[in-house]
Amino acid sequence: MDSKKIRTDLVLATGTQFFVKLVGYVIITILVRYLTKDEMGVFLFAASLATFFALFTSMGTDQYLIREVSEKPQRALKSFSRVFSLRLLLQVAFFIIINFFVFLTKPDVLETVVLTSVYVFLEDLYFTVSLFFLGLRQVIYRAVTHISAKILLLALIILVTRMRVSLNLILMCFILSNLFLIIFSLLMVWFKDGRFYLYWNRAFFTKILRISFPFFIITFLSSVQLNIDTLMLGYMRSYSTVATFTTGAKLFEVSQFVIRPLPMIFFPISAGLIVHQNWKQAKNLFQKLLLVTGAFGIIVTILVLITADLLVSIIFGEAYFETTQIVRVLFLSVPFLFMGVICLFYSNAQHIERKAMWVLVAGVLGNIILNIFGIYYFGIVGPAWATVISQTFITVSLIYLNFHHLQVGKNRAELKAMPMLLLEE
After folding, report:
1. Which residues contact 175 (CB under 8 A, 6 or more apart)?
2. Distance of CA 410 to the CA centre of its chain
């Protein structure tokens, strides 16, 4: 492993993640003071719904792509072309599906969902390009494209909120920013890595979807785990309640920015170690990552428990004072959330994503059941406790699963090496 390259990439990825999250929270801080609480609730509900449906436009192909690019860099452009082409088709199909679904179930927010789904789908399509960069360890290209788009978005939001425009025009700013993001990143691929082409090949698409399906289920369940609270509150309670809970959930979500760079940098490394049967080093790396993320998660939890009132007041304003209790409960699960991220990318690297999938199935089903009872009996704080309990179960199970398979791989490697050692003697 090139330690200097790892450090440089880690700084770049962390800096990018920090900047993107910072801009996101500056924008939310502007919007919660500009929009009414009901408008903010509609916007957050639409964003959660669009994010949920965006998973179906990926179908796990992003995780398939980064593994293919990491393990076979010589075929990177061909793999990217096929996955990107497939994703374009899926995005068109699910754009129609999400808006037809809203037309049937929530027609009063259809216009907002149409615009929101456009900007969410565009940003989700960018992640395919981003993972191509990460698979080739071209972290600088991801940094340049993502930061540029967020600077543009912030400038547009500041401009239009000064003009007192409607929510729909604000959503147009998100669309323009993400359109720029896609075009800029594709030009970067074209000029830096080579030409890519759009494919139409049913056999290739079927093969990719078959391999990617477990990744899709894992990503889908992970998203459900983080977003089911908002969706269930949206259908069971008022939009004002959605806004109160989701602002707290957004603060919870931003805590992940400190560890998201780790999978970006260490997935290609761990996949390489496992492909070359270096199980001992792979296991040591897994242990170190768990230790670092778990310890840092505990520190983050303690800091937020102490400063929750101040954070909510500064970021969201006095109108969202009820969000404080949501934040305090959700952040109890941060150490397990951090370690769970490490476990999921290691499951991918070890090709045991199907087993990890069943762990998430059990955890998410438990979360949904706990949400039903929690919302009914405990109100807005019920879903937060459901997240804490289910996330703890998921992470503990995934830690055991990964350690078990790393040990099995190590034992097999040692058994294979024994005949050679006996011959040498």
Report:
1. 115, 118, 119, 122
2. 31
Average pLDDT over the chain reads 82
pLDDT category of residue 423 using cuts at 50, 70 and 90:
very low
Max CA separation in the chain (angstroms)? 82
C-alpha–C-alpha distance, residues 349 and 363, integer Å: 21
If you average pLDDT over each of 68-72, 229-233, 360-364, which comes out highest?
360-364
Query: Which pair of tokens denotes residue 164?
Result: 């007192």
- Residues 236-251: pLDDT tens digits? 666 677 777 777 777 7
CA 88 remoteness from chain centre = 19
Its pTM stands at 0.67
Where are the domains positioned within the chain?
Answer: 3-424
Written as one letter, the residue type at 284 is: N
Q: Which of 235, 262, 251 is nearest to 314 (CA)?
A: 251
Contact 323, 36 (CB under 8 A): no
Give the amino acid at 313: S
Measured CA to CA, the distance from residue 276 to residue 169 in angstroms comes to 52
What's the per-residue H, E or C state across 237-249? CCHHHHHHHHHHH
pLDDT at 180: 92
Residue 81: how many other CB atoms lie within 10 Å: 18
pLDDT digits (tens, 9 = 90+) for 362-385: 998 888 888 888 777 777 778 888
Mean pLDDT for the stretch of residues 141-161: 88
One DSSP character per residue, 164-196 reads T--HHHHHHHHHHHHHHHHHHHHHHHHHHT---
- Per-residue pLDDT for 395 more than 90? yes
Under DSSP, is residue 394 helix (H, G, I), strand (E, B) or coil?
helix
Can you tell me the distance from the alpha carbon of 40 to that of 46, in angstroms, rounded to the nearest whole number?
10
Two structure tokens written together for 202: 């049913």
**Percent of residues in the chain assigned helix, strand, coil, to nearest 5:** 90, 0, 10
DSSP-derived secondary structure for 349-364:
HTT-HHHHHHHHHHHH
CA distances from 400 to 154, 347, 355 (A): 43, 11, 12
* Contact between 22 and 86 (Cβ < 8 Å): no
Angle formed at CA 424 by CA 422 and CA 425, multiple of 5 degrees: 65
Count the neighbouring beta carbons within 10 Å of the beta carbon of residue 213.
17
DSSP class of residue 272 equals H
